[in-house]
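Q: Could you fold this chain for me?
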Amino acid sequence: MQIQKLKQLISKILIKYNLNKKDAEICAKALINAELVGAPSHGVSRLKMYCERIKKKVINPKPKIKIKRVSNSVSFIDADNSIGFVAADTGIKETIKIAKKTGIAFVGIKNSGHYGLSGYYIEQAVKKNLLAFAFTNAPPAIAPHGGKKTIFGTNPICFGSPTNSKIPFIFDTSMSIINRGKIRVAAKLNKSIPKGVALDKFGKQTTNAKKALSGVQLPIAGFRGSGLAWMVDILTGVFVGSAHSGKVKDPFDDFRGPQNIGHLFIAFKNNLFVKNFKQQIKVNINRVKNIPKIKGEKIYYPGERKFFRKKLNSKKNIKIPSSIKKDLDNLLS
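A: Sure. Below is the predicted structure, expressed as structure tokens.
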């Protein structure tokens, strides 16, 4: 489907579900971006879920988002159970505005929902010549080291930096070996998942996506990944006053109330300590990329391949699986 046509279709569906035109376009843009960078697990396949949550009144389509300025460099946002894209869009814009003025910004968000790809927001800050971090929590998927019950989300962290080129450095990773969205898409399309990324509910390794969803996802780097997931749970749950320690609701299966997800954005000017940051980041990247390489391999910095993928995909139509196309048709009917 043509990109612009798909964007208009998504906006039309969300307006039907009572979002205003501006907020619908914010959501559509974020979902299209996920498709273009090669992350369809966070793209159009999730639209049905968002609409179901709006219909069941656990996402507020007409939020009254409140921004409280805590200090010159700190803001606290109550997203009023808005769709996560709108909450995060408000948050990153506030973060950028503060950082450009004071040099550093610290913005916490509560009462939000799933906001898609963290890198999408951090890239907006990087384009304004800022370094930035994003943290967000998620529904239970990972067990703490030594436990057999899920309690932490995949809890992604993201860091971005300007470079000496138009390609930003964007490191965006979840704390699980693969993100939960990929497992959901695999389950929907009846495809298997890689071995060694998840356990079933009996604690046995599985390549069955549906069994993995009812079991446990394995963290990156063993106990270190589980510790990082716990860290994000504290930063975006306990610290900002959102749900934590297993209480974030699953957006696909739990309609008892809002997710109450928390986000934390941090951004700062690149010249706070040195005046030649762009020159030094060029030196840094060149040194790393020019070390001796394994035969047939090339070194990319985080975000580089996504940049080229998006550039290439922006010239093509977006492929929509038949099952997801059917969902879109049903949402419009």
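A (continued): The chain has eleven helices and nine strands.
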